[in-house]
Amino acid sequence: MNAGEGGSERTTLLQSGLEIRSRLVLEEGLSRIDAHTRSRLNQARQAAVTAAAGRSRLAWLRGAWLRQALMPATGATAAAALVAAFVLGGGGHQLTTQVADNPASTLDVLELVTDDDAMNLVEDYDSSFYEWAAAQTDAGGATT
Amino acid sequence: MGAFATLAPPYNMPATAGGDTLLNDTSEARARALNRFLAGIELKAYKIAQAGLRHEDDALDAVQDAMLQLARAYADRPEEEWKPLFYRILENRIRDMQRRRTVRGRVMAWLPFRRDEDDEDADPIAQAPSHEMPAVARLEIDEAMTALDAALEELPHRQRQAFLLRNLEGLDVAQTAQAMGCSEGSVKTHYFRALQSLRVKLGDFEQ
Questions:
Q1: Domain B135-201 has what CATH class?
Q2: Which secondary-structure segment (H or E) carries A62?
Q3: Taking all residues of chain A, what is their mean pLDDT, rounded to a whole number?
Q4: Backbone phi, then psi, for B77, in 5-degree steps?
Q5: How many Å apart are CA A130 and CA A136, to the nearest integer?
Q6: What share of chain B is helix, strand, coil (3-state, %, to 5)?
Q7: Residues of chain B contacting residue A66, judged by C-beta atoms under 8 Å apart
Q8: What is the pLDDT of residue B174?
Q9: Residue in B44, B167, B206 closest to A14 by CB
Q10: Within-domain flag for A56
Q11: Helix count and strand count (H, E) for chain A
């Protein structure tokens, strides 16, 4: 066993020596590569770097164009989805009855959904304020 | 026609705004990093390609193709992935060229008037070494280099690639496996066998 282990260690050392020596020789070989080959490698590298720079600019321009072109489409799709959800959801019944009474109300709802300002108003809706205001009005009406 | 000249572009591109500056900064930094990376590996890559192809022009073509493909397809990947990716591309390129050469050799063997491309006279200035060293040391290195080249040439392709990627390029086992498209166990086997063969062929090379 000991002889085997010793042999194994020796082999490892010998292999390490071989690896070190061959690496030195190979690196010396690299330093001897002629100027013509180095020049061609340099040209290849410059071409690759230029290609990478051109590719990244193209990708950025394509991304910018997509952002600009698809933003309105995305907004319209989201609005349509909201309308569909409203129709299919709880508000659907009310909407259909309203539509039956007044067909123009569909356009009002659509305008409400697609208009950013209107949506902001809906999002900022403060029910407690309106309840308080209604109570004040009722109270005022009762006193007058 | 004049009306077209007054039309605004459909979408305003922020070409000169801050986005462009950011683009320039990032792409320039990326280009610098890529240039630095390629400059660091180009000689070793050439040596590895030359060992696989045994032809200087083919080796240069293979390295150039690998550089371009890395730049076009993987330049936006993390820098630490570049080296195994590059050597994977180079390895595929070398194998493609070896296959093509085999096919071309079969075809050329049938042609009555063929010309050997290796018959071209080498340019003595281009072939001149790029540095000087003492004659004795140079001779010793020359002999070692010739012996190592010959021993490497006799190795099977996969063993030679494993040896050069690990020993010359310094890739670890995992990176070498990625570059060679095989398992880490295969890399260890190829490398071990390469070392064993080199020991037998080079004899006292390591002393």
A1: mainly alpha
A2: helix A35-88
A3: 69
A4: -80, 160
A5: 10
A6: 75, 0, 25
A7: none
A8: 94
A9: B206
A10: no
A11: 6, 0
